[in-house]
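Changelog entry: the beta-aspartyl-peptidase record was regenerated in this release. Current contents:
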Amino acid sequence: MNKSIMVMPNGPYPTPLKLTDQPTVMIHVPMEVIGDDGVAISEQYPLVVSTWPFKEAVRAAWRAVDGNHSAVDAVVEGCSACEELRCDGTVGPGGSPDENGETTIDALIMNGVTMEVGAVAAMRFVKDGIRAAKLVMQHTKHTLLVGEKASAFAIAMGLPGPDNLSSADSIRKWSKWKENHCQPNFWKDVVPSDSCGPYHAKARIDVKEGGCSTRYLMGVAEPRSSLVGPHNHDTISMAVIDKRGHVAVGTSTNGATYKIPGRVGDGPIAGSSAYAVTDSGACVATGDGDIMMRFLPCYQVVESMRLGMEPRLAAKDAISRIARKFPDFLGAVVAVNKNGVHAGACHGWTFEYSVRSPATDDVEVFTVLP
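Regenerated structure tokens:
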């Protein structure tokens, strides 16, 4: 039998606990059976982990991986389901308009066995982000394609398009933002500061009499915009371990609401939004991608686990590295080691992530407090 218990950092409990101010960890005690091809299959697998309570996406990935599909294919099925459902309005078409009212797509897929990566960014006119990313991985020697050229590639490879990725809801949201003089936005140190532009750089003097500004002396970055939040700056980031123990990760997002056209967040950046190494494990992330991509938190998590750190500590360490420089940032990571042990850590918001494993009958949602 495949045993599982819920544990907290302070010890085991007789009943599962989901709400905690420390990351929750699920531990599986595995057994192995031999598959038809003679390869050992661990009963702790398969495993699907996703940011946020995107249960239908996790179920779609589970159906694929439990049906003996590869981790890569399961990630595609899971993220694609979220794109079709337009999870939280932040995945797939019809959400997160940029300053021009247009919706664009970022997506990534990574094979933790081969270390191959495919990604698309700022992709217009094509709604199937994760499938486009897989095509980049399968049929090119590149890692990342961007903008209209990514769209042309995806359409040439057989994906539907060109399509209008905006929706009535996204246009309505954008119109209200325009009526509010394009406030808030992602510009800084520009004039005019209280209208829709066009913007020009404002002369800025950081050196004050007698020395440098206090902010730079302290080594802490200036406060971030209030635009970043769980319902307007979201990503599905998913990790799958298949029955052979192979690991893959993938992401899909339509980015930050009211972003400056051309902006690319951490969604299509390997090591930031997601990372996988079959010999070590995987990491998935969500949050303020402009900040998080500067630290490559998922690379850090997987590398920490490779060096022997347990998932709970690896996740907390990666988040704390960012918070030291950006104390008001919002973000979260989930660490999954090669044995299927998982843990989450977050900063600035309450974070939830979803898990499906052989030990459960359906998707479980874990809550982590900052």
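Confidence is low (pLDDT under 50) at residues 1-35, 37-41, 207-211.
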